[in-house]
Design brief:
Layout (H helix, E strand, L loop, with lengths): L13 E2 L4 E3 L4 H4 L11 H8 L5 H4 L7 H14 L3 E3 L5 E8 L2 E11 L8 E2 L6 H14 L1 E2 L3 E5 L5 H12 L4 E4 L5 E7 L2 H11 L4 E5 L1 H16 L9 E8 L6 E3 L1 E5 L4 H8 L4 E5 L2 H9 L5 E5 L4 E5 L3 H7 L6 H5 L1 H14 L9 E4 L2 H11 L2 E4 L5 H9 L10 E3 L9 E2 L4
Parallel strand pairs: 6-11, 8-12
Antiparallel strand pairs: 1-5, 2-3, 4-5, 4-10, 5-12, 7-21, 8-11, 9-10, 13-20, 14-18, 14-19, 15-17, 16-17, 16-19
Helix pairs in contact: 4-5, 5-8, 6-7
Amino acid sequence: MANPELPPAGGLVLRPFRGVRFAVDDLAAVTSPPYDLIAREDVKSLLDAHSNNVVRLILPGADQRRYAEARETLAAWLRSRVLVTDDVPALYVYEQSGAGVLQRGLVGDLRLPAPGERTVLPHEDVLPEVVADRLALMRTTESNLEPIFLIYAGDEGPASRLVDEVAARREPLIDVRTADGLTHRLWAVTDATELDVVAADLRERQAMIADGHHRYATYLALRDAYHGEGRGTGPWDFGLALLVDSTAYPPDLRPIHRVIGGLPLEEAAARAKGAWQVHEFPRLDEALTALAATGGPAFVLAGTGPSHLISEPDAVQVAHAMPAGRSARWRSLATSILAEFLLPKVMGVRDDERSVRIVHHDPARAVRMAQAAGGTAIIVPPLSVDDVLTIAAGGERVPRKSTSFGPKPRTGLVMRTFAGE
């Protein structure tokens, strides 16, 4: 990872905390994907899987009392010992494994940097309304229910070696396989000497947010709100995070597709012809193959009917749409062109939560959603890890929902409450 400046005094800190964990027989049934990967239609199936599924906490509903209901549910589960707080503060080694997947890292309390520190680098923009929603939930429940996901260039150093040693030699607290085919294992590290090894190794390092920008922005907003109210330092000066050495476990970076409901595919393709080269393909897989082989900005428009590869946009129109003050690398990103040119200028919509639905990774699912809505799916190529790291190191951020790093931590395996601190 690019590291143009060493962090200031204080550095990257991941401290032990008293994890809050489910004490139920079917642990897989009470977990879920991260909140922003759960489609509306998936909430019911998660609730049907188990009455104590964590989705009741992270997506508590749509009425005005939803945040209070989440707080009440959390308190009830703690009283009834559906959820149990660990007795001793720990850093948790977390492993995800499956077909072609192995990722290990540390879950702990991330020290939130002061303004101007560069210990934690965001790389993606956020929407204020999403931060407001997460802030209301986090403040009402006084908890961090889902870890953010950070990567750092650890060079397989002491902290990374400790993670691998723990995973190889110790019995886990949790060993569960979830419906997505991944096995999740968790260990608690409580030995003072081992915790000191981690602290010393991380002190001069720098991390980048791989996933969880809205939750990270919420951490900062909550801390600032409490400080502004005179509450001083406290658990809100930290946030729950998974930290992974990207040298030892390179991240999997996948795209996030868009679905425009109500814009028929034929109309979308017609609009694109005013600024793009448009090539028709009878089948989606043929268009995706062509997209993967295309250099420069390109997307696939799909829905009901033939798919369309759009490429070679008009350079003058693209340049005119790009905001001033952005680097050449930022302006060349597929998602920058998507957010600043293709969606607002060509398709006539803004890339926001009200106008556009998002689909992580799966182009076929995006197409099905588009067909059901009588709309158009825009299949987006993945960004490169190098582009994202360079943008972040330069102090810029890619447009919202540009990246999907994985594998993402499973929600519900370990949580954090302020009362537990």
